Amino acid sequence: MNPTIVLVHGAFADSASWAPVTRLLLDAGHTVLVPPVFNRSLPGDAAYIRRFVEQIDGPVLLVGHSYGGAVITVAGVAENVVGLVYVSGYALDEGESLGRLQGGFPDSDLAANLVYTPYTLPDGTDGTDVSVKIDAFPAVFAGGVDPATAGVLAVSQRPLSAIAFGEGASAVAWKTKPSWGIVSGADHTINPEVERFGYGRANMREVVEVEGAPHLIMHAFPERVVEVISTAVAEVTA
């Protein structure tokens, strides 16, 4: 039985970030779902995606971009998840946070181009949203993407709550599920070494490096992303 492909977006993006890949997968006859991630906390986002996945009848291939990689790492322990694909993503270990993993390879352009904005939590206290400066977004996040598209994405970001950077992974699905990884060779949001290190540690079945690819590889090189997803689908249904 072919798995349902669930595409999980990351920080500073929403489900539309997957649009070119979604279209290609649908055209190829795959069943695809692209749920929202609220980007409020790693435990909360992972719990939401896990519950979403558990309500799908049949096997699921989870695909996570960027922060979405951290989310699928935790959510992927759901029983019906048969594989994981990391796209320019964080493959965390148990107890490890985004900040801790990225802190080991600090050479990226993201930190200098972040905006911190307060928002009100349900209890009336303040939380902090983190987003990318609009004028820096195309270069930092979407290099090589059509400028008109990058401009729209820049003003429609879904911020990430600052607390998510320090929250450790409570479970690690790649230790029990097969996984695949894509490294964006020209990533200026996550140091590509973060991706290489995480993927190597996870002993992934295949790691594909796309030279010249920006962080938003799904828009710049959607066909390459689909190739890796298709490989994973074939292997988990063989």
What does this 3D model show about the protein?
The chain has 238 residues and is α/β, with parallel strands linked by helices. The protein has a single domain, classed as Rossmann fold, CATH 3.40.50.1820. The chain is 34% helix and 20% strand. It has nine helices and nine strands. The strands form two sheets. The chain has a six-stranded parallel β-sheet, sandwiched between helices. A three-stranded antiparallel β-sheet has the order 5-6-7, with no helix packed on it. The longest helix has 16 residues, at 222-237. The protein is globular, with a radius of gyration of 16 Å. The mean pLDDT is 96. It comes from Amnibacterium kyonggiense. InterPro entries: AB_hydrolase_1, AB_hydrolase_fold, Sec-Metab_Biosynth_Hydrolase. Residues 5-227 form the AB hydrolase-1 domain. This is Pimeloyl-ACP methyl ester carboxylesterase.
